[in-house]
From TrEMBL:
Keyword Translocase: no
Superkingdom classification of source: Bacteria
Pathway per the UniProt entry: Amino-acid biosynthesis; L-threonine biosynthesis; L-threonine from L-aspartate: step 4/5
Encoding gene (name): thrB
HAMAP family in the cross-refs: Homoser_kinase_2
MF GO annotations: ATP binding; homoserine kinase activity
Residue ranges of every copy of the Aminoglycoside phosphotransferase domain listed in the record: 27-255
UniProt-recorded name of the protein: Homoserine kinase
Length: 319
């Protein structure tokens, strides 16, 4: 259960009174999630999501509010947070930072079809195009600068061949990205897995959970998406899903020559990023709550597949 801080109806009624959102009808804890307490809130006027932030850097929450406000203003399908009658979005509830969001329609796609891949690719291309002008700044907390020191913490738990693999990969990334040309920058989602999207059939209802949001290489965000959305069980890329997603993305934001050159290595770097972060949760820094960590093996498999088979040819940008 991912409600770590229970709330009473009276607490939520008092919280809602600050907003022009109607009166409480029902309150339901949401079992999904690993870090924060989430509730579905129904009022006599609308469906809402209430999030209490249980951990993480709370001083960074204004960045997420500003980013969601910005993307919402540009008509991206994100849950722009509700602001109270004084224009304030971020509040405290049960001694935790709290935000209230509209509840977006749809369900997580388990096995995304080609239409869903195209919908996500086109929307992510739009998001990245406008995010290049977002004025906020939060360095990417999981880029190469994080990989270099953090991978040492898990080496003792790995078989010798995996130790060598991880050390060699990080060294290769330093050569590829340390002195390479700067790639296009902007605001990123940072964790755009299938379970952070909502679909009604083939229509993308929303992109949610921006709490890994940051600014950095747009290509980093795109590689995370392709590794999750277009990888088969054996880690190899599915040509149709890969091409549908990337062609749709480039219809909104064509990749630069430098990005196309960096693409195979970025797929590897982002696969190792999740292999490492999941290993850290299992062996070094277990979750504060009694939750089952994600399996690190999935991204070891993807990394090994990228090494064995390389990247697929990138579709050309449509003109």
């Amino acid at each position: 259960m991912a409600v770590f801080t229970p709330l009473t109806e009276s607490q939520v009624e008092a919280f809602l009174s600050r907003f022009d959102a109607g009166s409480l009808v029902s309150l339901e804890g949401v079992p999904a999630g690993t870090e924060n307490s989430t509730f579905f809130v129904t009022t006599d006027r609308r469906e809402l999501v209430l999030t209490l932030f249980e951990q993480g850097e709370h001083e960074e929450l204004p960045f997420f509010v500003d980013l969601l406000d910005y993307l919402d203003e540009h008509r991206l399908p994100v849950p722009g947070p509700l602001h109270d009658r004084d224009g304030v979005a971020l509040h405290s509830l049960a001694d935790k930072p709290a935000l209230l969001f509209p509840r977006l329609p749809g369900k997580h796609p388990r096995d995304p079809n080609l239409a869903q891949c195209r919908a996500l690719g086109e929307t992510l291309g739009r998001l990245h195009k406008v995010s290049q002008h977002f004025p906020g700044h939060r360095p990417n907390p999981r880029d190469l600068h994080w990989l270099m020191p953090m991978h040492h913490k898990v080496l003792a738990y790995l078989a010798p061949e995996d130790q060598a693999l991880m050390k060699d990969e990080v060294e290769i990334y330093q050569g590829a990205f340390g002195d390479g040309p700067e790639l296009p920058q902007g605001a990123l989602h940072g964790d755009l897995f299938r379970d952070n999207t909502l679909f009604e059939g083939d229509r993308l209802g929303g992109i949610i959970d921006f709490y890994n949001g940051c600014t950095g290489d747009l290509l980093f965000d795109l590689a995370i998406v392709v590794n999750d959305w277009a990888s088969d069980e054996d880690g190899r890329l599915d040509v149709e899903r890969h091409d549908a997603l990337l062609a749709a993305y480039q219809s909104r934001r064509p990749l630069t020559a430098a990005e196309r050159d960096a693409w195979p290595m970025m797929l590897r770097l982002t696969a190792l990023r999740y292999w490492l972060s999941r290993l850290l949760v299992v062996y070094v820094d277990p979750p504060a709550h009694d939750l089952t960590p994600h399996d690190p093996e999935r991204f070891r498999t993807i990394l090994k597949a990228r090494l064995a088979h390389g990247a697929l040819p990138l579709p050309e940008a449509s003109r």
